[in-house]
Amino acid sequence: MSYLNVLNGDAILTLFRQSEVPGEVVVCREMMCEGKVKYTKDLAVFFESRAKHLEYQYGIDKHTYYTNVVQELEKLDSFSSGTDEIILWFEYDLFCQVNMIFLLHYINIKLPQAPPVSIVDLPHHPSSPEVLAQVFKQRVRLNADDLALAIDVWDAWCQHSPKELENISKRFPGNLRHLPVAIIAHLKRFPDSITGLSVIESYFLLRLALGSYRWYDLYTLFWNELEIFGFTNFQLDILVNRMVRAGVLEENDQMLKITSLGKEILNEEENYLDYCSLEHRWLGGVRLSDNTWCWDHETQALVNVER
């Protein structure tokens, strides 16, 4: 049997090479849960749009993006020839799940005659090569319904409204069993219907209302308590710097503390959206400056709020 393994990032690459798992390796170095995605079936157009956005909004050099991300993914095109099985190695968190869904979309577009696709339910921070060899044996083959659901999720992710994603989160996930929880975690990133805070911004303010923290210590708490997001420190830096610019946090000698405005927002006396610019900010295909959907904490659902 010939295998093609797709890993989510370089974090487990060394461990993977030490394992006895056979086959070629492709590394997905994207972060599709962050920033704009364009709704198109033309992958060249998609990557061009994505590269421009990441360079403008996140400072990721366009050439570097094509070299490290796009060209690596394009190895799928050549490696898949003669391969008996494509195996996707992804964890349960939002970061991994969205990348996995994109990979299934990519395979559907670029490799219409692709071999069977399986997924590995990768544990968080696998501890040894032996763990990887064990979960490889427990991989699950995706069926036609699983693949159709993945395509529907990716299409919904790229839409201008998040409502279809919410609808999809209620469907039977089949072998993509982590998707519903990951989608709900994503929807909670939309502004709260009362405070305007995403669930992550709210978490940071609530933590800092109890006392000051160093950046990394705050991130460590986040990674331990809100593991479902799987965000990198790069993503958290962007979010925290945005909160500092909005005036709800202040930083001094690497220490973060909440401001009086931040406390007023937590007390529902002010709205974060009155102070934080939404220009050029996207959640998937949703441009937040044009968005009227908010997350309602009481009903645990999206609500349409005209501002």
Kindly describe this structure:
It contains 13 helices and 13 strands. It has 307 residues and is an alpha/beta fold. It has 2 domains: 3-180, Rossmann fold, CATH 3.40.50; 188-304, Arc Repressor Mutant, subunit A, CATH 1.10.10. The strands form 4 sheets. A 5-stranded mixed sheet has the order 2-1-4-5-6. It has a 3-stranded mixed sheet with strand order 3-10-11. α1 (13-18) links the parallel β1 (3-8) and β2. α2 runs antiparallel to α3 (62-73). It starts with a strand and ends with a strand.
Task: Reconstruct the topology from this structure.
Blueprint: E1 3-8, H1 13-18, E2 24-28, E3 35-36, H2 43-58, H3 62-73, H4 75-79, E4 85-90, H5 94-110, E5 117-121, H6 129-137, E6 140-141, H7 144-157, H8 163-168, H9 179-187, H10 199-208, E7 213-214, H11 215-225, H12 233-246, E8 249-252, E9 255-258, H13 260-266, E10 282-284, E11 286-287, E12 293-296, E13 301-304
Parallel strand pairs: 1-2, 1-4, 3-10, 4-5
Antiparallel strand pairs: 5-6, 7-9, 8-9, 10-11, 12-13
**What is the share of helical residues?**
40-55%
According to CATH, the fold-level topology of the largest domain is Rossmann fold
Going by CATH, the architecture of the largest domain would be 3-Layer(aba) Sandwich
**What is the approximate shape?**
globular
Strand residue percentage: 15-25%
**Quaternary form:** single chain
* Tally of distinct domains: 2
Distance between the first and last residues' Cα: 57 Å
Query: pLDDT below 50 for ≥5 consecutive residues: which ranges?
Result: none
* Tally of strands: 13
Total helices: the number is: 13
Rounded radius of gyration (Å): 20 Å
Please identify the structural class as seen in this structure. alpha/beta
Largest sheet, spatial ordering of strands? 2-1-4-5-6
Series of secondary-structure elements, N-terminal to C-terminal: EHEEHHHEHEHEHHHHEHHEEHEEEE
- The CATH C-level name of the largest domain is Alpha Beta
Biggest sheet, in brief? Answer: 5 strands, mixed
Question: Mean pLDDT across all residues, rounded?
Answer: 96
Organism: Chitinophaga eiseniae
Protein name: DUF1835 domain-containing protein
